[in-house]
Structure formats: C-alpha cells, structure tokens
C-alpha cells in the first residue's frame, strides 16, 4: 500500500512536485499544533508548487489545500478570541467600498507591455461579488476560486485582483463558519445598495 498522500497525475500530465507538497503540508500541520507560528489562510491559499512529471494530481492537492485553508482560518479565529474576530458585515461593507470605483478603474493597470487580466472579465465578476454582498445574488467560495479571467496586455494588474479575491474568499469562509456556529445569518446583513 502506498504511503503517499495523494494519487499521482496521469502519465501524460504533470502534477505538483511531491516533496514540495509534502514539506508544505507537514509544515502547516506542525504549525497547527502550536510548535511554531502558523501560516495565514492567505498563505495556504497562495501556496504554489512546481509542475513535474510523476507529481501529485493537482485537483486532489488543491481540494486538500482548500480544506486546510478553512482549518487554518478556524484556528486563527480561535486564537484571536472575541476581540480579534472580524465582523463579516463590517468586512463586507469595507470590501464594497473598495470595489465602488467606476467600471474600468477598479484596479491598477499593468504596464502596456505587461500582461494583466482582461478588464471586462474582472469588472463583470466584481459586479457579481457586489451583488452577492448586497444580498441580491449568490456567490460561492468555489465560484471565486475558479473565476476565469482572460489575459490582456495593459489589463488589470493580476496581483491587485488576486489580493481582492483572497479577501472575498476569506470573507465567505468567515460567513460560512459564523453561520455554522449559529452566530450570524449565512450572508452579511443587507445594507443600502452601493455601487465586484
């Protein structure tokens, strides 16, 4: 019986470097035990590994990382105590305010010869995010993680968009955990519509 954590990618496909994945997961598991500082949920979400032949199946690893991100977020909330907890409704309002910029001006642009994300793709998705924060639409964590943006020279800077998506994912995770704890409704409280 194999002692590997995940199945390997098929012969014709590359997978994540097994040693890198194992090292990262071992590090996070030990950190969750309190031996040394824990990574943040964002650091788990942004973890990257080389693609190599005979590596771990990427889908299986990504699913495990999604679950690990939730565990880390739960542990962070537990260690923060009541005073250190983020209020989902306040965080939703803060996010909406940050996304209220005019269409095509919501994020900084990549330089003319650098690739960014297609502006229309991002702005359309941001509209979905804002509608969800206003309680007018449903948006899942999986929707945010799988949001497809075409590349475009001079488009929105990828790092700026990715940082916003990280905040949306963390907010949705907070809402999910608070709802599971019976502390808040499944969505942030609805406020006056503004402006995703």
Topology:
Blueprint: E1 14-16, H1 18-32, H2 41-45, E2 51-53, H3 58-80, H4 88-98, E3 115-117, H5 119-133, H6 141-145, E4 151-153, H7 158-180
Antiparallel strand pairs: 1-2, 3-4
Could you please describe the fold and organization of this structure?
With 196 residues, this protein is mainly alpha-helical. It has 2 domains: 67 residues, no CATH class; 93 residues. It is 49% helix and 6% strand. It has 7 helices and 4 strands; from the N terminus they run E-H-H-E-H-H-E-H-H-E-H. A two-stranded antiparallel sheet has the order 1-2. Helix 4 packs antiparallel against helix 7. The radius of gyration is 19 Å and the shape is globular.
Q: Keywords, please?
A:
196 residues, mainly alpha, 2 domains, two-stranded antiparallel sheet, 7 helices, globular
């Amino acid at each position: 019986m194999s002692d590997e954590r995940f199945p390997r990618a098929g012969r014709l496909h590359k997978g994540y470097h097994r040693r890198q994945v194992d090292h990262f997961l071992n590090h996070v598991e030990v950190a969750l035990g309190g031996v040394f500082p824990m990574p943040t949920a964002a650091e788990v979400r942004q973890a990257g590994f080389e693609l190599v032949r005979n590596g771990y199946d990427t889908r299986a690893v990504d699913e495990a990382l999604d679950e690990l991100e939730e565990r880390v977020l739960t542990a962070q909330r537990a260690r923060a105590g009541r005073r250190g907890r983020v209020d989902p409704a306040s965080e939703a309002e803060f996010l909406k305010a940050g996304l209220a910029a005019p269409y095509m001006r919501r994020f900084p642009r990549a330089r003319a010869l650098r690739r960014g994300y297609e502006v229309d793709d991002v702005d359309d998705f941001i509209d979905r995010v804002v509608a969800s924060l206003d309680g007018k639409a449903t948006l899942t964590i999986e929707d945010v993680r799988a949001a497809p943006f075409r590349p475009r020279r001079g488009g929105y800077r990828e790092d700026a968009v990715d940082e916003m998506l990280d905040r949306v994912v963390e907010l949705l995770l907070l809402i999910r955990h608070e709802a599971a704890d019976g502390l808040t409704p499944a969505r942030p409280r609805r406020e006056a519509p503004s402006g995703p």
